[in-house]
Amino acid sequence: SWADRMRGSSRGSIRLGLIDVAAVEHFDSVINSFRVERPEVSLSISVAPSAGLIADLRRGALDLIVCVDPGAHAPGVDVTRVLSEPIVVIAPSGTEIGPPASWGPWVLFPDGSHTRASTMEALRALGADRTVVADSHQPSVVRAMVRLGMGWGALSRSPGGDAHGLVEGPELFRRHLALMRRDQSPLDPAAIALAESIIATGNRIDQRDR
Question: Rounded to two decimals, what is the model's pTM?
Answer without folding.
Answer: 0.84
